[in-house]
## 1
Amino acid sequence: MAIRKTFEQDIQHLKDEILLLGSMVEQATLDSVEALKKRDMRWSEQIIANDKKINEKRFQLENKVMILIATQQPMARDLRMIASILEVISELERMGDYAKGIAVINIRMGEQTLLKPLVDIPRMAQKGTNMLHRALTAFVNEDAETARSIPAEDDEVDLLYEQVYRELMTYVMADPRNIERANWLLWAAHNLERLADRVTNICERTVFAVTGEYKETKPSYDELGETSK
C-alpha cells in the first residue's frame, strides 16, 4: 500500500508539472503573437531564449517518468497514464517550438512593416491557448468527457486560418511584391493552426489514458505540412 500511495503521489506531481509546462507554452504563444503585432524584436529574442526553459522542463519531466517506471510497479492502467504523460510532454515541447517560430519570423522580417494589422492571428492564439488550457485540465483530472468535446473547437481555428489565407492572397493578387510579407504572416498563422491540432492530440491521449480507447480525430501534420507520426 505504501508503494501504491507513493506512486499516486508521484503521478500527481507529474501532472502538476505538466500544468506548469503548459502555462509556459501558453504564455510563450500569446507573447510571440503580441511581439509580432508590435514588431518588438527584443521581446521576440527573449521568447526564443525562454524556449530553452521549455525544452529543459520537458527533459526534466521525461527523466522523472523514467525514474518512476524503474522504481515503482505500474499496472496496466498506470502504464497507459505514464505513456500518455510522455506524449503530452512531447506535444507541449513542440507547441513551444511553434511559439519560438513566430518569434523567429518577427526577427527575420527585419525592418519590413506588417502587410496588414493583425486581427485573426491574435484570435487564433487566444482560441488555441484556451483550448490547450482546458485540454490539460481535462488530462490532469482524467476527464474523458471534456477531452472528447474540445477537438470540435479546432474547426474554429481552421476557419480563422482560412480567413487569414484568403485575406493575404488578396494583397498578393493586388501587388505580387507583397508575397514575402504575406508569407511571413501565413507561416505565423500556420504555426497557430498546428498548435490547435496538437491540442486535439492531447485530448485523444486523455481519452486513451482513462478508457484505453484510442480514436484519432483528424490527421496529424508537422510544421512543414508533411504527415508525421
## 2
Amino acid sequence: MRPNVKGSIRQRLLFMLLLSTAAIAILLYVVVQSVAEQITQESQDNILAASAISILDSARVIDGEISIDLPYSSLSMLDSVTDERAFYAIHLNDEFLSGYADLPRIKNLSDIPTFQSSAYLGEDIRIASTRRSYSTLEGQAFLEVSVAQTLTGLNQSISRVSRLSLAIGFGFFLVSMIVALLIAQSTIRPLHSLTEAVSRRGPSDLRPVTAPVPTEMTPLVASLNSLMIRLQNSLSRSEDFIAEAAHRVRTPMAIVRTQAEVTLRRVEKEENRQTVREMIRAIDESSRTAGQLLDYAMVSFRTDDLAKEIIQLDALLAEIVDRLAPLSELRDVTITLNTPEKLKIVGDQILVQNAIQNVLDNAIKYSDVDTEISILLICKNDKANIIVKDRGYGFDNAEMRDLLKRFKRGQNAQQVIGSGLGLTIVDDIMGAHGGAISLSNNQEGGACVHLSFPL
C-alpha cells in the first residue's frame, strides 16, 4: 500500500531557507543602495559646501564696501571631481552681485551650509547655500553665496552602485542557496540513514533499531521499535497457532474418515452406502483443503525467513518417491526416477521437499490408472532441473496461465479432490529460492512440470 504522501520535509525546509535568503538578499540590496546613495550625496554636498565657503572666504570689506575676488579653485574643484556643469550666485541681502541671477535661492539660510535639490535649465541640480554677516557703510549686511552642480554624474554613479549592489545581492542569494541545499541535505540525512537501516533488513529481522538518531527522531524510533516488538509477538503466536491447528485439524479428520470407512463396510443399502461415500469424499476435500491452507500459511512464514542449507536433490527425490510409493500403488501408477547427476542446491529443505511433493502428488492424482510417472534430474544452463511427466489429463492451454493462482483448478480436474493451492505453493517456494516453475503438455499426452533451481 502506497503511503499517504503529503509534501516533503526537505522541500519544505529548503523553501523556508530560500525564502529567508531571498528576503535577506533584498534587504541587503536596499541597504547597500541606500548607504551608497547617502555617501555619494554627502560627498557632493561636502564639495559644494567647500566651494561656497571658499567664495565667502575671498570676500573683503574695503572702505565700508564688500569686495569679492572670486577664486578659481572654488569652482574648479567641482570640475575636477566630475564632468558636471557648475553654477553660482552671489547676493548681498536681496541685491544680486554676480553669477546666475535666476539660480534658485534657498530660504531661511544660516551660517551653516544648507542644501537643496531643484531643477535648473532643464536639469536636476544640487544647491549648497550659506551666508556670512559683514559691516558696511550701510550697516550690517548678509553676503549669500549659492553653488550648484548638475546631478547627471551623481545619478550615473548611483546606477553603477545599484548594479553592484544588485550583483552582490544576487551573489549572496546564490551562495546562500548552495548553503541552504547543504543544510537541508544534512538535516534530512539522519532520516535517510534510518530508512536505509530498516530497509536493508530481511523480512524476519525485527530487532529494535539501535542506530544513533537526533533527539527529534527519538519518539519515531521508539514507536517503530514498539511496533516491531508487537509484530514479532504476533508472528510468533501465528506460527504457534498454525502448528497447533495443523495437528488439531488433521487428526480429527483422519479419525472421522476412518470411522466413515468402517461405517461404509457395515451399511447394506446402496442409497446409504452412496451417502457415506459422499461424506467420505467431503471429508477428504475438507481435510486436503485444510492441510493445503496450513501448508500455504507455513510456506508464507518460512519464505520470509528462508533457511540456507545444502540440499542433495537426488537423495531428496528418492526419499519423496519412497514416501509416496503407497499412494502410487493404490492407483497402480509406477514412478521411475532418473538421476544421472548428483546435484546440490542451497535453500530450505522443508520447503523444497514440500514443492516437489506437491508436484508428485498432483501427478499421481491426475494420472490414469496403470500408467507411469517419470522424474528426471539434470543440470542445464547452470541450473538443477527437475522434470516430472505423467500420463494424466494434462493442462488446458487456455487455463494454463491461471493454474498458478490461488484456488484455480482446471475444468478437466473437477472430479478429482483438490484445493487449487498445490501449484500456488510450488510457485511461491520456487520464487523464494530464485527458481521457476513452468507447465506444459507432453506430445504423447499428459502433463509436464518443470522445476528449475539455481545451483
## 3
Amino acid sequence: MTLLYPAFLWLLIPVLILFFTKKNRNLISTVHLIILILIVTALTRPVIKLGLQEQAVEAKDIIIALDVSYSMRAKDIMPTRYDFAKETIAAFLAANPKDNIMLIAFTTNPLLLSPPTTDHELVNMALKSFNPEYILTKGTSLKKLFRKIASMQSEEKNLLLITDGGEENNPEELARQIKNSGIKLTVLALGTKQGSTIETPDGTLLKDKEHHLVVSRINPMLEKLVSKTGGEYLTASSTPEATSGVLQDAMEHHRQKSELITKKQYRYSEFYQIPLLLALLLFLILHTRAVKMLLVLFSFLGIHAEASLFESYHLNQAYKSYHAEDYNRTKKLLDTLDNSSLQSQFALANTYYKLHDYQKAITLYRAIHSTSAKTKQKLYYNIANSYAMLKVYDKAKIYYTKALQLGEDADAAYNLRLVALLQKKKAPLGMAHPKSQSADGGKSESQQSDKKQNKEEAQPSSGSGSGGESKAGQKKEKKQLILDESQKKQPLSSKVYELINKGYIRETQPW
C-alpha cells in the first residue's frame, strides 16, 4: 500500500487537534471529525502497485534547439531573450504532454541536453539546471547545428529553432543543408530590428575589441532561410504562453506525422473509493433515515477499483461510436482515457485497423500482453490480418500459424491458405473482414505482463509458420521510455560545458 499524494496528510493535523483537544464532544461532532479524516485519507489516493505496464502512445517527434549565445542576454524582449525562450519552452511542454521532445542547446557548438522523451519533467530539469554563465562561446553557428541534427537517426526531423540569428550570411547554403537533411524548420525569432545593447555580469555594457558598444539585432537572414525551405517564421508574442500557442498552431499547420512510441508506466489498484464511501455513508446515517435504501443502491453501483466513472462513460461511448462506424470519434474518445485497460487497448488497435492504418494497429496489438490463450489467439489473428492487408504475406503466415497453434479457428485456417496462395501469385487481396476485429474483443480478459511472450511477439520466429521473415521486412522499433519516479535531480556536469565551449578561443564573430 502506498499514497500517491501524501502531502494531503498535513490536513490531518488540525483535524486531529480538534479530535483530541475538544472537550464535551457529543456523538454527532465525533462522527463529523471521523468523516473529515476519511475524506483526507481519500485525497491522499491510497493504491497498491501492480507493476509496470507497456502502453503505446501517439506522439510527434520534435527537436527544440535553444540558442544560448551571449546575445540572448539582450533585453529588447523582457526579461531577456534567453529567459523568455525558457518560459516559452516550459509552456510548450505543458501544452503538448504526449509529444516526444528532444532539447539541444547551441552556440558555436551544439550540445544535446535531453534525449527524445515524453517525460517532460526530464526536459524541464535539464533546462532549469543549465547555467548560461558557464558558456564561454559567444557566437551562433547554425551550420554546425544543422549538421548535428542531420547526423541523428530519426525519421521525422521537426526542428523548432529558437534564436536571434547566426553568424552565417548565406541562406542558400543553409537551405541546401536543411533540404538534404530532411529537416522541417520552424523558427521563433527572438529580438528586434532596432536591436539592444548587452549587459555584462558586472553591470557594464558589452563592447567589442575596438571598445565600441555591441548592439545585437535580429538576423534578417533567418526570414530568408525560412522562405527558401518552406518553413514557418514566427516572432515573440506578448507573453511566453501566447508565444507557445502560436508555436502549436504552426506545428499543426506543418501536419507533422504522429508516431506510436512505447512507454512503461506503473499500474495501480485504487482504494480511495473505500474511505470516500465510508464518509458518505456516515454522513447519510446521521442526516437521513433511508440508510437501508442507500446500502442497496451502493451494492448495485459496484464502483470499479481500476477506473473512474468518467473513464467508464468515455469507454462505453467509444464502443457505441465504433459500432456506428464513426471511427474518428472512437479514436478521440479513447485518447481521453488516462488509465489504459485491455479493452481500451483492443478497441484503439481495432479502430486503427478500421481506419486502414495497419502499421499502427500492429504496434498497438503487440503492446497488449495477457496470459489468456484466447486473448493471445485474437491478438495473433488480428496482427496477421493487418500484415495481410499490408501485403506482407510472410509475417501474415507466421501469425496465422501462431493463432492456430492456440486453438482451432476456421477463419484463421482459411486466411492462411489464402495468403499462401497470394504470396505465390502476388494477386490482389480479397479477404473477408476478420471476425475478432470488434471494439470489445478483449473486454472480459485480465491484462498481465508477459516478458517472454513479448519477445516472441516482437520477433516472430520463422519456424512457427510456413514462411520465414526476411531482414528487409524487419522494422526498427522505437526505444522504450521508462518513467523512474525515484530519479533525483542532478546538475549538469562540467563536462557538458566543456563540450559546448570547445574551441571558444578561435571565435571570429563572438556576437
## 4
Amino acid sequence: MLTAVKNQGRVSFLSIKYALMQEMLNRVTFFTNILFMILNNASFIIQWIVLYSIQNNVGGYTFKQILLLWGIAAGTYGFSHFFFENAYDLSQIINEGKLDAYLVQPKNVLLSSITSKVKTSALGDIFYGYIMCFFAGLGVVDILLFTILSIIGGITLTAIAVLLGSLSFWFQKADMIAESGNGFMTNFATYPDGIFKGIVKVLLFTLIPVGIVNYLPISILTEHKVEFFFLIFLFMIAIVFFAFFLFYRGLKRYSSSNLMSMRI
C-alpha cells in the first residue's frame, strides 16, 4: 500500500511539474502573472491601512491579525489553486465527459485529474502570504507554522472544491453550486469573523467552513492555541476522505463523451 501511495505521489508531482513547464514556456507572461497577483492583493490591504488609521480594532482584530488573515487567505488559496487548479473545473470536466483521458490511466483518477493543471498567478498568492508574515513580524518558527497551516488549509479548500464539483455526477447544473460555494470560501476569507453575527457566523464554521480554514489559524499564530491546530487537522482528514468517497461514488454514474483525447 505504501508503494502505491509513493507511486501516486510521484505521478502527481510529475503532472504538476509538466504543467508548470508548459506555463513557463513564456517566461515574461509567467513572471508578470505572479507580480500582478501580488500587486492586486496589496491594493486591497490599503483599505485596511486607512481604516486602522482611524480606529485600532475592527471586529476584534488588530492590524497584525488582519495582515495574518490576508496572509493565510492568500497562502491557502495559492497552495490549492497552484497544485490542484483542476479541482475548481471538476464540474466542467464531468459535464463535458473529459474524465475519459484519466480513466484509461492506471493511476488514481481524482488525483490525476485535479493535478493536471496549474494556475501561475497562484504563486503570487503564496509569495504574498509570506510578505504578510514579514510585515506582521512573525519569527522563523511561526513562519514554519504558517506554512503548515497554509498547506492544511489549501488541501481543505481543494477537498471542498472536489465535493462541490462531484455533485455534477448527480445534478446537471451543479456547476453553479460549485462556483458559488468556492466563491463563498474566497469572499469571506479576508474579513474578521467578529463582524459576523448570528446564523451567518454559525454558517462560517459549518456549512461554509471559512472559520476553520482561515479564522482558527489566526488564533493559532497569535495565541498558540494547540487545540485549534488538531481541530483543523482532523477536519482536513475528514473532508478529504469524504471528497474521495463522494467522487468515486459519483464516478460509477459517469457517462463517457467518447472523446478521443490524451495527455502528454
